[in-house]
Design brief:
It is a single chain. By secondary structure, the chain is of the alpha/beta class. It has helices spanning 22-42, 122-125, 275-281, 328-334, 354-366, 391-395, 397-413, 424-441, 444-476, 479-500, 507-535, and strands at 45-50, 62-65, 68-78, 85-91, 104-108, 111-113, 116-118, 128-132, 142-146, 158-165, 176-179, 182-193, 198-206, 218-222, 225-230, 233-238, 248-252, 268-272, 286-293, 305-308, 311-318, 337-344, 369-377, 382-389, 417-418, 420-421. The strands form five sheets. Strands 25-19-22-21-20-24-23-26 form an eight-stranded mixed sheet. Strands 1-4-3-2-8-5-9 form a seven-stranded mixed β-barrel. The longest helix has 33 residues, at 444-476.
């Protein structure tokens, strides 16, 4: 082929788009619109932080509000420090208003609690996360996942208060809150503060009982049936039927207290172990004394009463109170066991200040005030401290010397000293021991030796007496002594026959009686002769003159 035969192609540049590009461009636009519409209709992402992910499955577990699906769990992962579970969930469109600062999330699963059996519908469908929105307008996309459902919604009418306590045995979330035995609320949250070593509770008290919560109310534990056997006797506190199997919290105003202002949300109160401890906590003004007891303090416990003639004036604070001393055991042997007590001014009368109380106590100590341990309960052996004033205590030089040594120790501990004396039982025990010591010091060996000698002499006397008895028996057995009773009987018969001769029926008795009558006649006849001889002794020689008989004198006029 020659060059002339070659034909050159005419190339022309097209400046307009080809209609064929319309199809891919439209496909891209439709894809972008679909992608935008997909993300726009998905809703926001929610982060839930939980301790574990039991029953929660990514792509299956739903988030519900009032049994309506409002979201779904997308992923379940561990946190970076491997201590928590991070749950990512995609919410449905227009559900963002449910996610505010007051919203609460918890897992609904089968549970058996005080309110009965709940969550049975999840046995087939699986667990789900319940969302309870709050009334806070601020949107928050990160929330903790609660271990148990809340007692009441965050926007429920009522009041929520906080309680602090160091001992909350038997109290848990869900326990009732009682006012004079009637249930008015529930324990909502529980949290232990490690730094303060105290437990914090959140209580929800529903409307209209929230008006009862004022500044002056006090909260205490209700444990169904409580027994208190102390030095003051047996105390039984029976709660409501709700608290018989589980604990609870009670609150009320103390007797004579004003109601005060209405408490607001978040107000903090102290949780007391019982109602009696509230009364004890009212006496915040007191003077502390250190008492040394030279006897056993077994049965004396902190909280025991301090009384004066039957009236409680204080409380035992610490038993025993071993302060910073070099030799505490030696101090206990010499000065006694130290006990810290409190004399509370409000127990005497309200307007008594501490300076007046201190001056009165110092004067009482100077007058002989001292502490004595006494038994308050014979069953448990609980002790209490009784204060008494006795002038005899001041006259005891040994006790005064001991108290001066105790004062030096108490001053080093930073407390004033209060004298003490032994109780009645201790005095009896001490006297009994002294008597036993005296008995132990008796010369028992010499007494036993003398006793042995006495027994030997007695034995010899008994042997001699036995020989004497044998001799007497031999004498009695002789025939002459055997014949003696018969002779005595014969003599008695002869004496009887002789006496019968002098009986009124006997002849001798009649003869004697006639002779006696004749003798009596002779004596009558001799009476005039004897009378004349008495008047004139010579009448036997000379004739007796006839004298007129004497006449009585006339009476003087």
């Amino acid at each position: 082929m020659t060059e002339s035969a070659q034909v050159k192609a005419n190339v022309r540049v097209i400046k307009q788009l080809s209609p064929i590009w319309v199809v891919p461009i439209a496909a891209v636009l439709i894809g972008l619109w679909m992608l935008f519409s997909h993300f726009q209709n998905q809703g926001v992402m929610l982060l839930l932080v939980a301790e574990d992910a039991e029953g929660i499955v990514a792509g299956k577990t739903q988030i519900k509000n009032r049994s309506v699906d409002v979201g779904q769990v997308v992923s379940v992962e561990l946190s970076a420090d491997l201590t928590q579970v991070l749950i990512q969930a995609r919410m449905k469109p227009n559900m963002t208003p449910l996610l505010n600062a007051g919203s609460q999330f918890w897992v609904v699963k089968p549970q058996i609690g005080r309110g009965g059996v709940t969550g049975l519908n999840t046995l087939l469908s699986g667990v789900y996360i319940e969302l309870q929105p709050g009334d806070n307008g601020e949107t928050l996309l990160s929330h903790p996942l609660l271990n148990s459902p809340p007692v009441a919604p965050a926007d429920a009418p009522g009041v929520r208060v906080n309680l602090n306590s160091a001992d909350t045995t038997g109290l848990a979330v869900g326990d009732p809150v009682l006012y004079r035995g009637y249930e008015v609320g529930t324990v909502e949250l529980s949290n232990f503060n490690v730094s303060e070593r105290r437990t914090q509770f959140q209580l929800y008290i529903r409307e209209p009982y929230d008006e009862l919560v004022t500044d002056n109310i006090r909260f205490w534990l209700s444990s169904g049936v409580a027994f208190d056997l102390s030095a003051e006797g047996l105390s039984v506190d029976i709660g409501s039927a709700t608290t018989l199997l589980s604990g609870g919290v009670s609150f009320d105003l103390m007797d004579g207290w004003p109601a005060g202002e209405r408490a607001e949300d978040g107000t903090e109160f102290q949780l007391f172990p019982d109602k009696q401890s509230i009364q004890e906590g009212l006496y915040s003004q007191y003077i502390e004394y250190l008492v040394f007891f030279d006897e056993s303090v077994r049965g004396l416990k902190a909280g025991a009463p301090v009384e004066y003639r039957g009236v409680r004036v204080g409380t035992v604070a610490t038993v025993p109170f071993f302060f910073a001393i070099d030799k505490p055991f030696e101090v206990s042997l010499q000065q006694g066991v130290p006990v810290l007590i409190r004399i509370e001014s409000a127990r005497l009368y309200e307007k008594l200040n501490l300076s007046q109380l201190d001056s009165e106590l110092q004067q009482a100590i100077a007058d002989g005030l001292h502490a004595v341990l006494k038994t308050g309960n014979l069953i448990t052996g609980a002790l209490y401290i009784d204060l008494d004033i006795s002038s005899s205590w001041r006259e005891d030089k040994a006790l005064q010397q001991l108290f001066s040594e105790q004062q030096q120790l108490s001053t080093s501990a930073g407390y004033p000293a209060l004298p003490s004396a032994r109780s009645g039982f201790s005095n009896m025990e001490q006297k009994l021991l002294m008597a036993l010591d005296k008995i132990n010091n008796l010369p028992v060996e010499s007494m036993l030796a003398q006793g042995e000698q006495t027994l030997a002499a007695t034995n010899e006397v008994m042997q001699n007496a036995q020989q004497l008895m044998l001799s007497m028996q031999t004498l009695i057995d002789q025939p002459q002594l055997q014949q003696l009773p018969a002779d005595i009987q014969l003599s008695l018969q002869q004496l009887r026959s002789t006496l019968q001769g002098f009986s009124p029926e006997a002849e001798a008795y009649g003869s004697v009686s006639a002779n006696l009558q004749a003798l009596e006649q002779v004596l009558r006849e001799l009476q005039p002769v004897i009378k004349t001889l008495n008047q004139q002794s010579n009448s036997l020689i000379f004739n007796a003159s006839d004298q007129p008989e004497p006449e009585p004198r006339k009476a003087r006029l």
